[in-house]
Amino acid sequence: MSEVLRVSALGRTFGDTKVLEGVSFSLEHGERLAVLGRSGSGKTTLLRLIAGLESPTEGDIVIAGKVASRTGQVLIVPERREVALVFQGLALFPNLRALDQIAFATRGRGGVEAARSLLDRVGLRHRAKARLDELSGGERQRIALARALAQKPRLLLMDEPFASLDDEKRTEMRDLLRSLIGSAETTLILVTHSRDDAFDLARRVIVLEHGRPVADDMLETLLIHPRHAAAVRALGLGELIPGVVTARDHAATAFGKVSITPGTEPGPAVLLVRPDQPHLAADGTGVEADVLALELRPSEGREVHRIAVVRTEGCILRVFGRGHTLSVGDRVRVRIDGECNPVQG
To answer: Where would I find the ABC transporter domain in this sequence (predicted)?
Structure first.
């Protein structure tokens, strides 16, 4: 495999504010990377730097072996980077019809016939003459994707591309994108707040926190062994509770003594509690807690999971209420089974 992108010690400052700092990673041909993080963590800025729309305050960007940007300079202009960017707002031309939106990008790359072929691949051949204001949100997403792929990019950048779509349309667009980039083996960087987007489209994940990378690993590894609280939140892996490690394999928490991953140093810690670990204890064990709310979740079958949101000493957990009839305001006993993972942050 050949290296498509290398980012080294990348940073971007606006005034006195560091928006991005110390970002380094590389991507091979065909890799799919999801960039996750809270709003304002620097995700969009990272894409704009890679696309050449801004110059970095520090660091280098190398695309296909050529230095594209370095500190204070954009050395290769955006249109010559072989990089396509799909903006969150899509940035479609308001005065062009559907086919013309794509044909604008296929000039010198097959022209109108290439545009028709792409329009067909995204399922919109019958909408070729539709004006922008006649297209639905999902159709506009398909046009923006087709226009990006019409450029035959080495690297496709997508900034929250499905944010405006409902769950059903998001699923459709993820399936379409996976099909299109899979056949072309296009390298992908996807910025998203949706863990489902990451699960379906990425194999590797970077999590940004306050502009700095706090996690960078294969998705499967992060799901099993997250090391930072930001990764836990971004991937929805469970609840985070404070604790104090009292021995190398135990910690004291508001929900009582819990087992932890062996080898953790004594002292304050943040602990990951997976969804299947908290239980309502009917045998007198556990710690008393108040039921604040009741939530419902679908299961894989026809059952409905009833979840109790409980609190003790200001600490909140969600507990499956299997076999229990609960009401808001009830006092229950809760225990945490299994090992909790200490994480940074």
So the answer is: 5-235
Could you tell me whether strands 212-218 and 204-209 are parallel, antiparallel, or unpaired per DSSP bridges? antiparallel
Rounded Cα distance between 232 and 253, Å, is 19
Query: From CA 235, how far away is CA 223, in angstroms rounded?
Result: 8
Compute the distance between CA of residue 211 and CA of residue 306 in angstroms, rounded to an integer.
Answer: 37
pTM exceeds 0.85, yes or no: yes
pLDDT along the chain (345 residues), means of 10: 92 94 96 95 95 96 96 95 85 85 76 85 88 86 87 91 85 89 86 93 96 97 95 96 90 94 89 94 88 87 84 94 86 94 92
**Top CATH class, 3-82+153-224:** alpha beta
CA angle 189, 160, 216 (to 5 degrees): 40
Predicted local confidence at residue 272, as pLDDT: 97
Instruction: Please state the CATH superfamily assignment of the domain spanning residues 238-343 in this structure.
Output: Nucleic acid-binding proteins (2.40.50.140)
Q: Residues of CATH 2.40.50.140 domain(s) within the chain?
A: 238-343
**Residues ≥6 apart with Cβ < 8 Å to 293:** 308, 309, 328
Rounded distance between C-alpha atoms, residue 12 and residue 72, angstroms: 10
Is residue 152 classed as helix, strand or coil in its secondary structure?
A: coil
Q: Are 115 and 150 in contact (CB under 8 A)?
A: yes
142: part of which helix (H) or strand (E)? helix 137-150
Residue extent(s) of CATH 3.40.50.300 domains in the chain: 3-82+153-224
